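Anyone else keep sequences and structure tokens together like this?

Example one:
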Amino acid sequence: MKKIDPSKVPNGQTLVAFRESQNPKKASSYKNFRELRDEMGVAKPRPKKSRPRAKLNRTKPRTHLGSSLDALLKEEGIFEETQTQAIKEVIAWQLLQAMEKQHISKKTMATRLKTSRTQVNRILNPKTDVTLSSLQRAAALVGRRLKIELV
């Protein structure tokens, strides 16, 4: 069989059309593109290599399977700080909900608390530390009260 030089194929003409123009009787016998590619000597595409799945590197046995989140946090030594952060987020969320319910803006809240708007933002931001008196004043302003107890 005669191999076709791809550089001799005119622009705008497919390889199959070029082949048909060279030998019209032979062209209809091609079943698919692979036969034509093989005859032309064009390189076959490389088969895709499957990657092996990553294995989990577990040096420690699974001790927390089925245990509580509190037990995990206590073992890691971050139970107290995560609990403190969760309480701050709940208080800030409850204050925001009460403000939205009563249609109180941050600016109005600052005016009623006789403080700046940035101070109101600090009260509503769970990442900052605020005093209990500030939280009590803000809660009283929205008709709620702050309850703290030792357990």
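And example two:
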Amino acid sequence: MLLLLACTRSAPTDSGATDDSVSDDDTSVEDTSCEKSTWYVDADRDGFGGGSTEACDQPPDHIDVGGDCDDEDASVYPGAPELCDGQQNDCSSDWTQDDLVTFTHTDGTVTDVSADFRGSPGVPAEPWFDQSGTFEFCAATYHFDLKTNGEAVTLRGAGSGATLFDGGGAHRFLYIQKSDAVVRVEGITMTNGWGCYGTAISVWQANSCSESGASSGGGYSNVDLTLQDVVIEGNENLRGNALVSLKAGKLSLIDSVIRDNEGDVIWAEESDFSCQNSAITGNTETGVEIRVEQFETSHEVSVTDCDFGAAGTAEDNEGTDFVIDQWPSGTDVRVDLEDGVSFTCDTTVAACE
């Protein structure tokens, strides 16, 4: 019988053999031959970076421009326009927000217009703007007579206790020269103004005054004017004309005070009027006069929690607090009011409740 035996043979081991599993073109080893660049993280995406890193390739959220002194605020970077926000937006070491005025256009572009508003008590600046946008006034005292022709304009101060418009006893503050405009004034005090037909704010009169009388001009109507956190005090109206005048528009007082002025306060011809949590006190003439054509037009008049000065006190207006004048018949509503009053009026029948 022939017996066959199967056997196996192990491959010899060679400690110097090469492992075929390791490829000659393995790239897992860091390439130290590249030229590294400095990259800056741009967390707020304003085009300037803060913290830096060295890398061959640009890391995510990094750029090649540094210098951002606050990479968590997109309004702060080298060369940024200054804003009334209490910080150096341009990363400069020099403080530049005293009497700063900026204008933000409707497309978001911010322009420093401070030079246009730098006047003096005797020589006010006379800026004129025909664009829509927002004026920002830092905490300071300003002397100017602004004329605006924009369709939508806001004047915003740092608060009525911080931003002061001073008329120097010689001029008004704002002349709106655009029909159908929407205008807001916020966080501002207007004082020491002088003139006719809108000593503080005029919408439709040219405010040309003389000692012998007042001449009016212009005809801008349907303006929607809102005053919020505004103080109008210590102004003088020549021959008793109004501090705020408008025609065929809308006037809204919100959290505002009009006090201790000489002359009528508000003249609103063919206009809506609303007062919310505001005060019209201590003035020498009529508080609010709404003039309408007899029985022909209806206007909304709404007063909510507003003060007109209690009778017999220094805060009481010397003239009638509230008047609806139905011209030319003379069928009027004339009432003296107290503090904290609320009511609405129907101008077509000259009645309030």
